[in-house]
Design a protein that fits this description.
Elements: H1 8-25, E1 29-30, E2 34-39, E3 42-44, E4 47-48, E5 60-63, E6 68-72, E7 78-82, E8 86-96, E9 103-112, E10 114-119, E11 127-131, E12 135-147, E13 152-163, E14 166-171, E15 174-177, E16 182-185, H2 197-202
Parallel strand pairs: 9-11
Antiparallel strand pairs: 1-8, 2-6, 3-4, 3-5, 5-8, 6-7, 7-10, 8-9, 10-12, 11-12, 12-13, 13-14, 13-15, 15-16
């Protein structure tokens, strides 16, 4: 058998190609998840959570009765709200900006309860998925809420819902009702702590508590008719 040798120039080209391929594979960076609001009993991997704490992929965020956790995900969100009696983890938070368009992958594992969030517009190759035991929601540029029983509410944008082997398209002002296995009008209020539309468009990291207390209304000053110095004619 005749052996075919590889020229040094070709070997060098192969090495450069392999190096470039390796750099592209490692270009994706782990995204950011930071607790910006904690109300009531909130735990991360069983320990009491605190504002400013970083939540890594694989760590479990749990809320107790009446509790709520707000998270800021930067490019991967930017906003996630974990509602009372709920548990989630991030299976993947990755951001790859090496190509012409950034590829952003967000995968939320809804272990129980309800999670909501705001998803800004991303590239066609990006994906944002919430997966529960009964429902999977593929979310695009949306304000959404997903409950593990299969209920999916949408206030803006669109969500593709997979439930018991069937797919449903749910858009702003609609919700998926698992009891009827159909898309109906959205009757749910948006969760407290979701940033305003102005904050969303400006991509502001909202550092407010999970639930903002109602501000007292200013008391109107009494109206007087006529001055003490006798200004009338």
């Amino acid at each position: 058998m005749k052996m075919i040798g590889i020229s040094p120039r070709f070997a060098s080209l192969l090495a450069i190609t392999a190096a470039l391929a390796g750099s592209s594979l490692s270009a994706a960076e782990t995204g950011k998840a930071e607790l910006t609001g904690v109300k009531g009993s909130v735990k991360v991997d069983g320990q009491a959570a605190f504002v400013g704490e970083a939540v890594k992929p694989g760590q479990k965020v749990e809320t107790g009765a009446g509790a709520q956790a707000n998270l800021y995900l930067a490019d991967n969100g930017p906003t996630v709200v974990v509602l009372p009696d709920s548990s989630i983890s991030f299976d993947e938070l990755s951001v790859d900006k090496s190509g012409a368009e950034p590829v952003i992958i967000t995968k939320i594992n809804l272990k129980g309860g309800t999670v909501a969030g705001y998803v800004k517009k991303t590239s066609s190759q990006s994906s944002y998925i919430v997966k529960g035991s009964t429902v999977t929601a593929v979310i695009r540029t949306s304000e959404y809420q997903v409950t593990d029983n299969g209920t999916v509410a949408v206030w803006s944008g669109c969500v593709t819902v997979s439930y018991r082997g069937a797919s449903y398209e749910v858009c702003g002002g609609q919700m998926f009702d698992p009891s009827a296995a159909s898309v109906v009008a959205n009757t749910l209020p948006m969760p407290a702590g979701m940033p305003s539309s102005i904050q969303q468009s400006a991509n502001i990291n909202v550092k407010a508590p999970a639930v903002v207390p109602t501000r007292p209304q200013p008391v109107a000053s009494p109206v007087t008719t006529g001055g003490s110095n006798g200004g009338g004619n």
